[in-house]
Each structure stands twice: as structure tokens, then as C-alpha cells.
TrEMBL record:
Lineage start: Bacteria, Pseudomonadati, Bacteroidota, Saprospiria, Saprospirales
Highest taxon of source: Bacteria
Cited InterPro entries: HTH-GbsR_regulator, MJ1563, WH-like_DNA-bd_sf, WH_DNA-bd_sf
Keyword Transcription regulation belongs to the record: yes
Species this chain originates from: Neolewinella litorea
Family: Belongs to the GbsR family.
Protein name: HTH-type transcriptional regulator
Gene Ontology molecular-function annotations: DNA binding
Keyword Cell inner membrane: no
Record keywords: DNA-binding, Transcription, Transcription regulation
Length: 166
């Protein structure tokens, strides 16, 4: 397989995987392109490579910057913005966990806290409170586990993880 074909397959696969971690296919494809690029890429470079609009590139690169999955790179003498993908996979995983926790788990925890105070008598009300209590318990355990995972020394975590899956 030639390099260009490999890059295309990787970008397409990473884009499909992106929906699993809560981002759009285009955002994940831009991230994949930045990951495999040996040099920083401009908005024009990304547009040309992925055949997408300037607006699409601008929106998705901003999101990648917000998630900590890409960084701006200043090139002396250039007026364009250039972008570099975060290539440290432990940081990539950590940043995805942090972003998803903030976007998905934390709002659910707040909702469950609010629902804990629901009043009512009868079997339906008791069942509702019991389900909310259980969900809250497991959601807090997940939150604690993710928080611990983010704090763990990434080299230790990944070497242990890789040893486990071998």
C-alpha cells in the first residue's frame, strides 16, 4: 500500500471512529490529517486535502483547539494560521476523556442531583427514586474513575494498558 492510500484509509477510519468519542466525522478527519502531517497545515491545506469548505475547517479546527487535540503554530513571515495535531496519544485520550466528561457526564450528574428531590407517594414514585438513586451512585463512580484516570501518570497508564492487551 502506498503512503497516500494509507493516509486516506486512516483519515476515513479515524473520522468514523470520531462519532464514538462524541465529535463529528469532519472534526475527527481533520484531527487525523493533522496527526499524520509532518508539517503544520493551514486552513487552505486542510480544505484541499479533505475537499471541505473554509467554514467547515474553521469551525472544526476551533473545536480541536478547544479540546486540546490541536495547537496553532506560528510560522515567521506567514500571515496564515497553521495547525499541528497533538501527537502524544496519552494526551489525546486524556483530553477526549476530559471533554466528554464535561459535555456528557457532568450535566447528567447535575440532573440526577436535581431529581433526587422528587416527591410523591406510591409505587411509581418509589421506583422512580430508586432508579435515580442507582443511576446517581453509578454515575458518581464513573466520574471518580474517569477523574482518577485523568490524574494518573500517562506513561504508567499506557504501559500497563498495553501490557494488559498483549
Amino acid at each position: 500500500m502506498e503512503l497516500e492510500e494509507g493516509k486516506e484509509k486512516f483519515i476515513e477510519a479515524w473520522g468514523a471512529l470520531g462519532s464514538s468519542w462524541g465529535v463529528t466525522r469532519t472534526m475527527a478527519q481533520i484531527h487525523a490529517l493533522l496527526l499524520v502531517a509532518s508539517d503544520p497545515l493551514s486552513t487552505d491545506d486542510i480544505m484541499d486535502e479533505l475537499q471541505i469548505s473554509r467554514g467547515n475547517v474553521n469551525i472544526n479546527t476551533r473545536m480541536l483547539l478547544d479540546w486540546g487535540l490541536a495547537h496553532k503554530k506560528l510560522i515567521p513571515g506567514e500571515r496564515k494560521e497553521f495547525f499541528v495535531g497533538e501527537k502524544d496519544m496519552s494526551k489525546v485520550v486524556k483530553n477526549i476523556i476530559i471533554a466528554r466528561k464535561k459535555r456528557e457526564l457532568e450535566p447528567m450528574l447535575r440532573l440526577l442531583d436535581d431529581l433526587t428531590g422528587v416527591h410523591g407517594d406510591g409505587p411509581d414514585a418509589r421506583e422512580f427514586r430508586e432508579v435515580i438513586k442507582d443511576l446517581k451512585l453509578y454515575s458518581h463512580k464513573a466520574d471518580s474513575a474517569l477523574a482518577a484516570l485523568v490524574k494518573v501518570d500517562s506513561n504508567w497508564f499506557f504501559s500497563t494498558f498495553l501490557t494488559m492487551i498483549k
